[in-house]
Amino acid sequence: MPSFQKFFFETKGKPITYKGKTLVMVDDIPVKDGETLRLVCESVNSEWKQGVSIRIRDKGFFIINGEKVKAHLAVWHNPAHSVFEFTIKAKDKNLEVKNIWDTGNGVTELWHNGAAMIVEETPNGRRYLCNDGHPDENFDDIIFRIERVTAIDKK
């Protein structure tokens, strides 16, 4: 089975094409100050704990439930809470998105062996089909969306 790690190593982390699909290690979403986004977990199909890492590039922070939170978060799948909203507080930056997992030893893992994401554009955001560290090609270990909740004035 494929180990996408070697392909990403060859491209120095740039996107690769595999069986007609573009695969990425990380995605950057342009965001605006004050914009509210929603992370929605659609499904998980892995024996490992699955999650999403979100980080504001450069300086900034998140507002979550009215509280200021650092600009780098791990959001772990929780079947009881599959929706997570946050507001961006940064000046016209990018939100870095990547899939993460924990094999059971308490260590957050990413970017090795079979890790890769397929990113699909949606009307109000992006959908991610993710492969974790298993060297396979099922891209259903975690499937999630990031949606824009608030419209930002484009003036």
Describe this structure in words.
The protein is built from one helix and 13 strands; from the N terminus they run αβββββββββββββ. By secondary structure, the protein is mostly beta strands. The protein has a single domain, classed as Jelly Rolls (Sandwich). The protein is globular and about 45 Å long.
Task: State which percent range the strand residues make up.
Answer: over 45%
Note the total helix count. 1
| H/E series | HEEEEEEEEEEEEE
Distance between the termini: 49 Å
CATH architecture: Sandwich
Q: Give the overall shape, derived from the CA principal axes.
A: globular
How many separate domains? 1
Rg (C-alpha, Å): 15 Å
Supply the CATH superfamily name. Answer: Calcium-mediated lectin
What is the CATH level 1 assignment?
Mainly Beta
CATH topology name: Jelly Rolls
Q: What is the number of E strands?
A: 13
User: Low-confidence segments, ≥5 residues, pLDDT <50?
Assistant: none
Mean pLDDT: 92
- Summarize the biggest pleated sheet: 7 strands, antiparallel
Question: Taking strands numbered 1, 2, ... along the chain, how are they ordered across the largest sheet?
Answer: 7-6-9-4-13-12-11
Question: What level of helicity do the residues show?
Answer: under 10%
Q: What structural class is derived from the secondary structure elements?
A: mainly beta
Compact description:
The protein is mainly β. The protein has one helix at residues 4-10; strands at residues 16-18, 21-23, 27-30, 36-44, 49-56, 61-64, 67-69, 72-76, 83-89, 94-102, 116-122, 125-131, 142-148.
